[in-house]
Amino acid sequence: MTTDPAHDPQERRLENERQVMLYDPSLAGNFDARWFDGDHWRVAAALRGSAPGRGSTVFFAADGREYALRHYRRGGLAARVSADRYLDTGEHRSRPIAEFRITQQLQRLGLPVAAVVAARYQPQGLTYRGDLITLRLHDVQTLAALLRAAARGEPMPALDWARVGGTIARFHGAGLDHADLNAHNLLRDAQGGWHLIDFDRARFRRPGLWCDANLVRLRRSLLKVCDSADCDSPRREFDERAWSQLLAGYREERQRLPAATTG
To answer: The pTM is what?
Structure first.
């Protein structure tokens, strides 16, 4: 599969009485509504697996690229009321449209994300459904998976915690408040670089105390992964020393960033 260099993202719009779709024509050739249909890709023998979780993300191949298709699903108690419908407060405030545009802005800033390809907003009455397509990141592993592999004693390069912190600092310096910064949304590539994904409910803000709240949420996630049943090992990769290294990398990168990006 080919990879795409950084480019200035584009936006095109398709709509009818049932749905609004935004897409980047440079990343989606011959785009239409079928791109959001997992069964379409299954019939075409183009499915390439699925992501762990609630089963809402599948991977498919088309035109020499691989993509990740995510259907927005509710979690927790809200899922008992509706698995995938959200209160409709307007197209521009809907999750898929907002995430599409936030991710495009992060791409323009040169931040390490999975390039966004398309979004779909389907209003019906007082609610809506949504979907998002991004390019699939290859040869990556989540921080959570790496921690579990280390606990099992699997051979792997040492985690560069300072680099993790530096990556988060770049997003914070750009004003990105990630709504769910956790060990599953940080991915390391084969070159040791880190990527951040899943900008559902994220927003841009002037840097402030929310930066600390993001880091506290990440710390809770790391401890939860390492305290899970399959990560109960004296080979625990994450500890107070690792956290100190992450914070040192974070502070160093924030100090290095131009004043214009740190608010």
So the answer is: 0.90
